[in-house]
Amino acid sequence: MEPFLRRRLTFLSFFWDKIWPVAAPDDGVPGLPDPVAGAEPEPAATEPCSPPAPPQLFRVLYDFTARCSAELSVSRGDRLCALREDGDYIFARRLSGPPGTGLVPITHLARATPETPSDPPWYFSSMSRARAQQLLLSPASAPGAFLVRPSESSRGDYSLSVRAQAKVHHYRISTAAGGLYLQKGRLFPSLEELLAYYKANWKLTQSPLLQPHVPQRPPQQDEWERPRSEFALRRKLGEGCFGEVWEGLWLGSTPVAVKVIKSAYMKLADLSKEIQTLKSLRHERLIQLHAVCSAGQPVYIVTELMRKGSLQAFLGSPEGRALDLPLLLSFACQVAEGMSYLEGRRIVHRDLAARNVLVGDDLACKVADFGLARLLKDDIYSPSSSSKIPVKWTAPEAANYRIYSQKSDVWSFGVLLYEVFTYGQCPYEGLSNHETLQQVMRGYRLPRPAPCPAEVYALMLECWKGSPEERPAFAALQEKLSAAHRRLAPAHT
Fold first, then answer.
1. Segment 393-437, tens digit of pLDDT
2. Active-site pick, 78, 157, 351, 369
3. Which of 154, 167, 318, 364 lies at a 20 to 30 A Cα distance from 277?
4. Which domains are present in the chain?
5. Catalytic site residue 409?
């Protein structure tokens, strides 16, 4: 009797549902006011827990207009799910656009991959019932989390899995000629509209749909982060406020420089942020970062190895003292170029000096240690700790008030030029840090070194202007030094 009346008098379906209520979901949601017609049955105990075979997906290459009721009209770009093959046709369900099923000529189609960017975040195309239950009950999910997946027991249909406290309820979403439904009599043109309806009317299923399940992705391995075991420290090159610098081998073959950070002096909480900045800086006049070891202590910062060491030490060596004026000007130009790049990126060095410029076998100069001075603890790098702060290279506003800027770097560059043209001589020789700062505040400036051209010394004096705003930009310094180098180089060839 019931099937006959339901078939003949479909417009009274709401009345038949009250007389002959449909079975509730298998996992038992008691007292549903309007039970879910399509609750997905539990699989048999012998059913394997492996995910279902991924559906055969197709992309429509050419428009096709149905010629009879058994065929499905499709447009170029539509996505289809194949329910079965039928000779030269496939019987398919349309996934994009208005829902529908029917036969489509296989000559109009091309296979598509299951995962596409258009898949909504709540749809999992290769998810099994058991895996859905496991994910929704995991700590990463909360009550109200849900997802939609292909039905395991009815090919071409979907299943809605919803977490309700400590249980997961599964509901069948059936495909009909005019759309999709969770309960008979409530037809929707798309999954999006069906979910929107049951989010607003969750009492119909007694399972609130609060948020889609978001799969946990394993943390991506930072390509820069390497284990310390990959690096062998061979020879100590030097030591400073930041730590020790070693010559080492990476994986037993690649020569590198390894800076071993002194944790007692550094703000390690800020180090990771500074390392991120180092990773983003790439220029031929800056030391290139190769790797970091920041998990645990000591922290390693691994960079390219510059064989001739610091510019300060190289200039004082017999090889350095034999260099003529064009090569000295070339060093100045290279440092200005590197600092101009940092200036464009709004990076303040804070400790620019010849000791922090490294020289390679080809006499290429590269700026190093940019930004690390910012990480020194306040009691180490402050005016009250004159033994640590590099006062003789530091602009007055930075030495007195800790006001660092690109213009304070310009002051330091002027002192670096003095170092270059005195072959690594210490500036303000014979004066203590305190005396140096007093003399500078009274207007004293370093004298012109003997090999220094007058036009270059004029640039040095511009770098030492008392007002930071009056000091030139690095881009202007680079341009003027390059012009001086071009004029003077031919005379020395």
1. 999 999 999 899 999 999 999 999 999 999 999 999 999 999 999
2. 351
3. 364
4. 2-43+120-212 (3.30.505.10), 56-112 (2.30.30.40), 228-304 (3.30.200.20), 311-492 (1.10.510.10)
5. no
